[in-house]
Amino acid sequence: MKIILVGYMGSGKSTIGKKLSIFVGIPFYDLDEIIEEREQKSINSIFKENGEIYFRKIESQIFNEFISENNHFILALGGGTPCYANNHLALQNEDIHSYYLKTSVDTLTKRLYSEKENRPLISNLNSEELNEYIRKHLFDRNHYYLQSKYIINTDNKSIDEICEEISNYSR
């Protein structure tokens, strides 16, 4: 089974993926961690040293290699992954169960503000700027996220409830 988790940064893809791995008994991978391992540097460093275009190119390459070379996995994508290089087309593959973890702007703002120093694209924004940034990005990215086969609204749900919902769809 191939499960791909899609959503904006802070939507809980990695947290849900780790727990879901226990629920369904298949390994969890985080695309950003795979990229960091392959490149031998952090995502932050890749952005700073090589720029976003370079990052998006290797992100797409590694993503497509991973889904073609592996059969049983849960994979959390980066928030921008579906939006570049036609990566969103993979979300419709017959053998892939793709899930958009849809999270409200206010929830995302609260989560991301407390951890913004770890996220290169938002590290210099105040709370109000962050909220506006998220609104704009969600507007731009929504089309790509909605290419997922299933939409899971995550607001006011526990991690276990979300995992249960995903595992029910994946049967």
Descriptive notes:
With 171 residues, the chain is of the alpha/beta class. Helix content is 51%, strand content 13%. The protein has six helices and five strands; from the N terminus they run βαβααββααβα. It has helices at residues 13-24, 31-39, 43-69, 105-113, 127-145, 159-169, and strands spanning 2-6, 28-30, 73-76, 96-102, 150-153. Strands 2-3-1-4-5 form a five-stranded parallel sheet. Helix 1 crosses helix 6 (159-169), helix 2 (31-39) packs across helix 3 and helix 4 (105-113) crosses helix 5 (127-145). The longest helix has 27 residues, at 43-69. The radius of gyration is 15 Å and the shape is globular.
**What is the CA-CA span between the terminal residues?**
10 Å
User: Helix-strand pattern, N to C?
Assistant: EHEHHEEHHEH
Structural class: alpha/beta
Query: What percentage of the residues does DSSP assign to strands (E)?
Result: 5-15%
Helical content stands at 40-55%
Total DSSP E strands: 5
Task: Tell the overall outline.
Answer: globular
Mean pLDDT score: 95
* Rg calc: 15 Å
How is the largest sheet built, in terms of strand order?
2-3-1-4-5
Low-confidence blocks of residues: none
